[in-house]
Amino acid sequence: MAFPKTDLAPSYQKPSFNTAASFHFNKNKRLNISLWLNVGEVVSENREVIFLDQSEFQINDYASTSYQSLHAEPTLHIFKKEKWGLYIAQGFGFFRYETYDENNQKLADQLNSRAPGETVSNFTVILPSSLGGYYFLPNKFGIHGRVSIWNTQTDYLDNISSFGNPDNNDNIINLQLSIIKQF
Question: 3-state class of 27 per DSSP?
């Protein structure tokens, strides 16, 4: 599940589902690496938001953001046993996104929805910080749980920056529970 924090949604709310695939290279005792691919969508909405006089601008009060990310995470095992482990991770990767209004129109194309001179890219860097753990059964299948905060280096997941809080980048909390296989 993914929970966005944006100018439209200043607290983590509006849960949505995403899909993830990962490869964990866990041969070492303490320091290992994981590769992650995520695809999903988050929604930010605040129908009561008033940023300024909107006679000149059409500032959105709803944003649906579809995304894909690819990142690597060096993982440091706090505990690592034969059947289970607990780790922390700090990653680096790339985040591609597209933001739409309630009519499924791209907000990047709506220039009157942002302050003059603001341009929007649909690509940014992501710095995910994670805490996770796993447990393997005798048949080498297992369960994996993880909590991550994806620190995006953009303030445009909801298409709002200067009209909102330009000092804070948007981010996403991601909760994952998955079935894993040991090779």
Answer: coil
In degrees rounded to 5, what are phi and psi of residue 61?
Answer: -115, 10
Segment 98-154, tens digit of pLDDT: 999 889 988 888 877 777 777 888 999 999 999 999 999 999 999 999 999 999 998
Q: What's the whole-model pTM score?
A: 0.85
Nearest to 102 by CA among 136, 67, 64, 68: 64
Query: Structural domain tally of the chain?
Result: 1
Contacts of 52 (CB under 8 A, 6+ apart): 59, 163
Q: Provide the residue range defining the domain that includes 84.
A: 2-181
**Residue at token pair 């922390």:** 88
What pLDDT digit, counting tens, does each position of 71-105 carry?
A: 999 999 999 998 999 999 999 999 999 999 889 98
User: In the block, which residue shows the tokens 């046993």?
Assistant: 81
Query: What's the one-letter identity of residue 153?
Result: Q
Residue position matching structure tokens 């009157």: 112
CATH of the domain at 100: 2.40.160.20
